């Protein structure tokens, strides 16, 4: 299985960048609208919570963006003007060598938006004007995909929970709340599709996946995230004073678990702890693979734990709910949410059984074998992102790390050379 050439920037990439910035602006605009409505109606606590989520999300995303910009500046050719290659055009995008200006933009919480604008600008130059810098345009889109993932679970998912909680608590729904729920849901949906598309771009040509895999990936995430958000909102509606303690206890456990998995995503110790803290927040809503090797066991532990926790949240809500006000929806929710979570697990199993590529490659292929056997008929060793024909300078190592973790996650392979050779001999 030969390595794939570097994926070139395409019209679809440009469309995704444009839709991504539109989604970001609509989500941000709906946040401001909801916050203004809360303030105008005198709901100062909910106003403070919503503004706090907005500020926290923005600060976290800006910190990741700034860390990555600092790391990228150390890459060869990043600041070279008029050159070619992965960073062609980097001197005119993301402020080039103007570190103080870049820092100021991030302090003003504009770094993420500037990255969107930079990606669109660079993509337009490459796709429409046929200029150089395709690799850098792709590089930017991969960073944006990661930042959208972080922004979604730091703001959109908590905000969606808050809006559902407010509707349940007041037993009333206003237009602005529906708009906010629609914007948050759209942001989550777009993040799931865009993130999986970025992961797929690292696959070799032979293992490229169609849109069917993205559909199953989307359904699995939707059916797992939606019951989780609903269960948290229902619990909050009856015991609002305990949800903060519930989150903090689980977040601490998740951060320690990420530390135990020895994550190595960022290039500095401070950045790595920021990453682990963010992973803890993401795990509060959804599973996210952060380490190489066997993860099937970790995934089973996580989903079992979340199923038990979700069951406790739903049971608590059922016991403390108002039977009169919740009569119309209590029983349907009690039945639908666990079934949705179970269906999400089934879709996840379906994905790994039918759509997840078997990224293996032989150390020494038998010359007598055909060169184009189906993946299922050939024994391969672990596919490494670094085995691609693209040079390491052309590679967004952050997204490549996640792609490697995701696509190699359930292969159950030890990356030690001796164990790999033993596995090869046993397969032969």
What does this protein look like?
By secondary structure, the protein is mostly helical. It folds into 3 domains: about 1-200, no CATH class; about 210-355, no CATH class; about 360-425, no CATH class. The chain has helices at about 10-40, 45-75, 100-105, 110-125, 135-170, 175-200, 210-240, 245-260, 270-285, 295-320, 330-355, 395-405, 415-425, and strands at about 360, 380. The chain has a two-stranded antiparallel ribbon with strand order 1-2. Helix 8 crosses helix 9. The longest helix has about 35 residues, at about 135-170. It is globular, with a radius of gyration of 23 Å. It is found in: Cell membrane; Membrane.
Main traits of this protein?
membrane; two-stranded antiparallel sheet; single chain; 3 domains; XK-related protein; transmembrane; disordered N terminus; 2 strands; 428 residues; transmembrane helix; globular; XK-rel; mainly alpha
Short description:
Keywords: Apoptosis, Cell membrane, Membrane, Transmembrane, Transmembrane helix. Belongs to the XK family. The chain is mainly alpha-helical and 428 residues long.
Write the layout of secondary structure elements.
Layout: H1 11-40, H2 44-73, H3 99-107, H4 111-127, H5 134-170, H6 175-200, H7 211-238, H8 243-260, H9 269-283, H10 296-320, H11 330-354, E1 360-361, E2 381-382, H12 397-407, H13 417-427
Antiparallel strand pairs: 1-2
Q: Tell how many strands the DSSP assignment holds.
A: 2
Q: Mind telling me the C-alpha Rg?
A: 23 Å
Q: Uncertain spans, ≥5 residues at pLDDT below 50?
A: 1-5, 80-93, 360-392, 410-428
Query: What is the approximate shape?
Result: globular
What number is the mean pLDDT? Answer: 79
Largest sheet: 2 strands, antiparallel
Structural class: mainly alpha
Cα distance spanning the termini: 17 Å
Distinct helical segment count: 13
Q: Give the H and E element order.
A: HHHHHHHHHHHEEHH
Task: List the quaternary state of the chains.
Answer: single chain
Q: Helical proportion? A: 55-70%
């Amino acid at each position: 299985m030969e390595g794939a050439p570097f994926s070139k920037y395409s019209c679809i990439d440009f469309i995704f960048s444009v839709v991504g910035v539109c989604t970001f602006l609509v989500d941000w605009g709906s946040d401001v609208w909801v916050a203004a409505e809360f303030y105008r109606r005198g709901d100062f606590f909910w106003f403070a919570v919503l503004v706090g989520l907005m500020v926290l999300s923005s600060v976290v995303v800006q910190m990741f963006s700034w860390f990555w910009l600092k790391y990228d500046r150390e890459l060869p050719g990043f600041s070279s003007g008029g050159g070619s290659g992965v960073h062609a055009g980097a001197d005119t995008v993301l402020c080039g060598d103007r570190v103080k200006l870049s820092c100021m933009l991030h302090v003003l919480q504009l770094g993420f938006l500037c990255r969107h604008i930079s990606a669109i600008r660079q993509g337009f130059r490459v796709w429409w004007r046929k200029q150089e810098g395709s690799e850098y345009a792709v590089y930017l889109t991969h960073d944006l995909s990661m930042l959208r993932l972080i922004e979604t679970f730091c703001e959109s998912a908590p905000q969606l929970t808050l809006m559902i909680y407010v509707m349940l608590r007041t037993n009333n729904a206003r237009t602005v709340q529906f708009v906010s729920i629609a914007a948050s849901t759209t942001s989550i949906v777009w993040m799931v599709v865009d993130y999986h598309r970025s992961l797929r771009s690292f696959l070799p040509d032979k293992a490229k996946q169609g849109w069917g895999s993205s559909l199953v990936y989307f359904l699995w995430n939707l059916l797992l995230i939606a019951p989780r958000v609903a269960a948290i909102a229902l619990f909050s509606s009856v015991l609002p004073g305990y949800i903060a303690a519930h989150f903090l206890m689980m977040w601490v456990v998740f951060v320690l678990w990420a530390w135990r998995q020895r994550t190595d995503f960022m290039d500095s110790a401070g950045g790595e702890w920021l990453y682990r803290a963010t992973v803890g927040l993401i795990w509060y809503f959804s599973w996210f693979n952060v380490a190489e090797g066997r993860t099937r066991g970790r995934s089973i532990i996580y989903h079992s734990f979340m199923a038990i926790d979700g069951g406790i949240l739903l049971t608590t809500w059922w016991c403390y709910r108002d039977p009169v006000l919740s009569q119309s929806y209590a029983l349907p929710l009690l039945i639908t949410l666990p079934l949705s979570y179970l269906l999400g697990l089934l879709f996840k199993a379906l994905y790994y059984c039918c759509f997840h590529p078997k990224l293996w490659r032989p150390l020494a292929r038998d010359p007598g074998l055909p060169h184009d056997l189906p993946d299922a008929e050939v024994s391969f060793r672990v596919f490494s992102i670094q085995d691609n024909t693209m040079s390491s300078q052309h590679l967004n190592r952050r997204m490549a790390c996640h792609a490697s973790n995701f696509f190699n996650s359930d292969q159950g392979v030890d990356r030690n050379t001796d164990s790999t050779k033993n596995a090869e001999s046993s397969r032969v």
